[in-house]
């Protein structure tokens, strides 16, 4: 059994990464008693994650100059106390070490030299407490992001650490999962007597269950330290300014429905999905060829797909309208992201079809110079045709960065889009459409990224990366914008920015489809909500009907 | 990727043989076939290995489909050998620069068969063994440093993740207007930049994973192992059959007087 909670003590503590001008954080004085539950807050860039890593003893101090002041865990250097500390990082994928669930859970206890007979029991208990019911041999690669986060947490609980350090442990979970995992953490901490330090943007989740809130200041040191009621009372304005999600505050309220004001020609849907089943599995080369041929033969009448694959979800019917928001919600692992990629024309369906309307195919826009009209199937479009019609923003912004500066990233989409201005080969002047450089400049200003125009996209802050990734899609002026979990891990400021930006996009007549767990976001953007149910995995699993609120299920093909 | 998915093969007879035995057999059989350069030894070896696959319910056709590049390479190395080895014996074909004699063709066939045999030995081990099981045996039976072994096992998982990541990056590039429809030059350049992004992502992931491993007590001191290698009658049988293959193959070749050592 665990030796109970660990104590933490810091005096003038700071950390100065080699090669940086300023320390990540400094002048931190604190004492955390064994068993205390602490929520650590602060603006982005105040060094919260670095502080957690330092407490876990996993930061490298190569030249001996990085660590400032003194910190101890249970009276010793954190490096020597590693066995009694469990750290969970933000990225769920990197909280898993091995390829089978049981092996991964056992990894920590094995390293600590826990007797063999005890390990299996510990693992089973840890798995239960995070609400995962999986066999030992289950492959970790088959888990969804939220399930990975739970498994990573279980892997730490199995070590029965005296100090639990969690960096945004519920960022990737659905709302029910957030409460479930939070309760599991608190129950485990109380059962083992562990000390708990959590970093989390969303204060409301933890405020009621922690004993103490510590606020790191961006200027160094601690600006507030006390019980949740005290700190939230005293520091509310400061926290709001810092973009922290303070309880009972929504940065953007829902707007009154604009349904009455929608122009008549916006009422025809842009995109329709019918009897759609989606999968991550690649079709064979021969299937892809046959499919492309079939679509070419029938350029205006949709043909349902049919192939064998493990389906993420099925029986989805929906319509995407100009100027409107369609939210796709549902629990972790329900197939939301796969559905988004299918709607965006990036992967082919397993059954049913996604079809573009005449309007979306022809891009009825006097400014656009369209070479040829693509068929109804977005998956069959050339990439230039695709980005001018449907823009996609991935969950992980870094996946989409392909140029070395922010400015070039924004020019790229504007240049490659179908109908973009072509540069004259000799005089360099742009004709027949919009100048990509001008479009990029306009976006830089709108997104507030002018000051980082020449910076490498990978060096931006989390909020800037998110804005840039939306900007790269908008550069091509898509009629539909598909976003996968756009608000994950974002602070309240970036969140409000994003809502404003998307409202503008919709007001200009584009449709927005977003996959999200975020109720406030869905409410702020309005529109319809398509809720996907839990889809049972495996070939023998029974199909469940996707529960849809406002969207159409099935229906006749309307383009024929 | 299918090649690394050993879920079905792990249920086969060979899947339940202790990995330590399989590693020993891999070494023994590889050495035995590497030093034997005649067609009879390699040919009978290939035949026996196919029988082993069938006996442990692995479809040899699946292996052929998955590993066709390896077998193609074996055939080409045989072709090259037949073309370049000393031209003794009867002339079989003489067209321009191509001169094949009975002996050179014999040597070529032997080399091709040897390549096939060596490939099949490795495949039989890899297809039927989980990375963690190999790690357990290397660390516990062969007493290799656990730090080194576990790092390798964790890295093995990253291979699968990188394959998924590659697909995500391809989709992300298409969503940026850089899909695989921009001509040959565009596609070659696209492949290079996509590979670079993959490497960047892999390095970042590896460093985060290293932090996770350390945070989970990796290298903290003496460790225990949940899985301990167990030995059963299967292992004795596998060892006997496995060692029997080169013994019978080489014996047959010696009796027929065709055995050649090394070259």
What does this entry look like structurally?
Chain A: It holds the Pfam family ABC_tran. Chain A: It comes from Rothia koreensis. Chain A: Residues 541-560 are annotated as: Disordered. Chain A: Belongs to the ABC transporter superfamily. Chain A: Keywords: ATP-binding, Nucleotide-binding, Transport. Chain B: It holds the Pfam family CbiQ. The complex is a heterodimer of chains A (560) and B (263). With 560 residues, chain A is α/β, with parallel strands linked by helices. Chain A folds into two domains: 8-241, 3-Layer(aba) Sandwich (Rossmann fold), CATH 3.40.50.300; 270-531, P-loop containing nucleotide triphosphate hydrolases (Rossmann fold, 3-Layer(aba) Sandwich), CATH 3.40.50.300. In chain A, 31% of the residues lie in helices and 19% in strands. Chain A contains 17 helices and 20 strands. Chain A has helices spanning 48-56, 101-111, 116-129, 145-157, 175-192, 203-207, 228-234, 236-241, 285-297, 336-343, 358-362, 383-389, 406-416, 436-447, 462-474, 492-507, 519-525; strands at residues 8-15, 25-32, 37-41, 67-73, 85-88, 163-167, 195-199, 212-216, 222-226, 269-278, 305-306, 313-321, 325-329, 351-356, 390-393, 422-423, 430-431, 480-484, 511-515, 528-531. In chain A, the strands form five sheets. Chain A has a six-stranded mixed β-sheet, with helices on both faces. In chain A, strands 15-18-19-13-20 form a five-stranded parallel β-sheet, with helices on both faces. In chain A, helix 2 packs across helix 3 (116-129), helix 4 packs parallel to helix 5 (175-192) and helix 15 packs parallel to helix 16. The longest helix of chain A is centred in the N-terminal third of the chain and has 18 residues, at 175-192. Mean pLDDT of chain A is 84; it is low at 537-560. With 263 residues, chain B is mainly alpha-helical. Chain B has two domains: 2-135 and 232-256, no CATH class; 145-215, no CATH class. In chain B, 69% of the residues lie in helices and 3% in strands. In chain B, strands 1-2 form a two-stranded antiparallel ribbon. In chain B, strand 1 and strand 2 (98-101) form a beta hairpin. The longest helix of chain B is centred in the C-terminal third of the chain and has 33 residues, at 183-215. The two termini of chain B are 37 Å apart. Mean pLDDT of chain B is 85; it is low at 1-7.
């Amino acid at each position: 059994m665990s030796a109970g909670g660990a104590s933490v003590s810091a005096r003038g503590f700071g950390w100065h990464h080699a090669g940086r001008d300023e320390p990540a954080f400094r002048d931190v004085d604190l004492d955390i008693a064994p068993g205390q539950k602490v929520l650590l807050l602060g603006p982005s860039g105040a060094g919260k994650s670095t502080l957690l890593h330092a407490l876990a003893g996993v930061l490298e101090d190569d030249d001996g100059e990085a660590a400032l002041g003194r910190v101890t865990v249970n009276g010793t250097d954190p490096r020597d106390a590693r066995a009694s500390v469990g750290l969970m990082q933000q990225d769920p994928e990197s909280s898993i070490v091995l390829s089978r669930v049981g092996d991964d859970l056992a990894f920590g206890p094995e390293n600590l030299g826990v007797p063999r007979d005890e390990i299996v029991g510990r693992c089973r208990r840890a798995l239960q407490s995070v609400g995962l019911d999986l066999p030992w041999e289950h492959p970790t690669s088959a888990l969804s992001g939220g399930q990975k986060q739970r498994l990573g947490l279980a892997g730490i609980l199995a070590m029965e650490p005296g100090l639990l350090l969690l960096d945004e442990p519920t960022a990737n979970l659905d709302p029910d999962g957030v409460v479930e995992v939070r309760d599991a953490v608190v129950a485990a901490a109380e059962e083992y007597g562990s000390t708990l330090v959590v970093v989390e943007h969303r204060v409301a989740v933890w405020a009621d269950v922690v004993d103490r809130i510590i606020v790191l200041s961006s200027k160094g040191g601690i600006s507030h330290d006390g019980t949740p009621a005290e700190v939230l009372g005293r520091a509310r304005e400061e926290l709001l300014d810092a973009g922290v999600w303070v309880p009972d505050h929504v940065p953007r309220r829902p707007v009154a429905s604009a349904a009455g004001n929608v122009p008549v020609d916006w009422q025809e849907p842009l995109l329709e999905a019918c009897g759609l089943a989606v999968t991550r599995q690649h079709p064979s080369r021969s299937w892809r060829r046959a499919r492309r041929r079939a679509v070419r033969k029938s350029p205006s009448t949709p043909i349902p797909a049919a192939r064998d694959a493990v389906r993420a979800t099925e029986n989805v019917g929906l319509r995407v309208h100009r100027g409107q928001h369609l939210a796709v919600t549902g629990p972790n692992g329900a197939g939301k992201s796969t559905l988004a990629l299918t709607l965006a024309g990036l992967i082919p369906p397993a059954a049913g079809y996604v079809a573009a309307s005449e309007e979306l195919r022809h891009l009825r826009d006097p400014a656009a110079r369209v070479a040829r009209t693509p068929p109804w199937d977005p998956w069959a479009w050339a990439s230039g045709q695709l980005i001018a019609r449907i823009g996609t923003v991935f969950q992980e912004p870094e996946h989409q960065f392909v140029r070395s500066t922010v400015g070039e990233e924004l020019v790229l989409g504007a240049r490659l889009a179908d109908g973009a201005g072509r540069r004259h080969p000799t005089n360099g002047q742009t004709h027949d459409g919009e100048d990509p450089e001008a479009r990029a400049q306009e976006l830089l200003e709108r997104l507030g990224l002018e000051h980082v125009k020449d910076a490498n996209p990978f060096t931006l802050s989390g909020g800037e990366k998110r804005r840039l990734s939306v900007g790269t899609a908008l550069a091509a002026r898509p009629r539909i914008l598909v976003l996968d979990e756009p608000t994950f891990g974002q602070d309240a400021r970036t969140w409000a920015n994003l809502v404003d930006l998307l409202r503008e996009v919709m007001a200009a007549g584009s449709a927005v489809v977003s996959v999200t767990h975020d109720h406030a976001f869905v409410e702020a953007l309005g529109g319809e909500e398509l809720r996907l149910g839990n889809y049972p995995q495996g070939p023998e699993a029974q199909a469940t009907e996707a529960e849809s609120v406002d969207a159409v299920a099935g229906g006749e093909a309307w383009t024929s | 990727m299918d090649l690394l998915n050993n879920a079905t093969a792990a249920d086969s007879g060979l899947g339940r043989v202790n990995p330590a035995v399989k590693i020993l057999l891999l070494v023994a059989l590889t050495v035995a076939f590497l030093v034997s350069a005649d067609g009879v030894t390699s040919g009978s070896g290939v035949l026996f290995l196919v029988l082993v696959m069938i006996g442990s319910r692995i479809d040899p056709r699946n292996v052929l489909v998955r590993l066709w590049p390896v077998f193609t390479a074996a055939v080409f190395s045989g072709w090259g050998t037949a073309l370049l080895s000393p031209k003794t014996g009867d002339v079989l074909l003489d067209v321009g620069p191509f001169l094949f004699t009975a002996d050179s063709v014999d040597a070529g066939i032997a080399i091709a068969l040897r390549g096939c045999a060596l490939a099949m030995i490795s495949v039989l081990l890899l297809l039927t063994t989980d990375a963690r099981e190999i790690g357990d045996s290397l660390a516990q039976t062969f007493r290799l440093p656990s730090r080194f072994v576990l790092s390798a096992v964790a890295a093995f998982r990253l291979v699968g993740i990188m394959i998924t990541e590659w697909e995500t990056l391809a989709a992300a590039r298409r969503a940026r207007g850089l899909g695989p429809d921009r001509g040959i030059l565009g596609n070659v350049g696209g492949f290079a930049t996509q590979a670079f992004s993959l490497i960047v992502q892999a390095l970042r992931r590896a460093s985060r994973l290293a932090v996770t491993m350390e945070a989970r007590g990796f290298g903290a001191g003496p460790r225990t192992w949940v899985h301990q290698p167990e030995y059963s009658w299967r292992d004795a049988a596998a060892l006997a059959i496995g060692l029997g293959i080169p013994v019978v193959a080489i014996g047959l070749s010696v009796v027929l007087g065709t055995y050649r050592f090394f070259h």
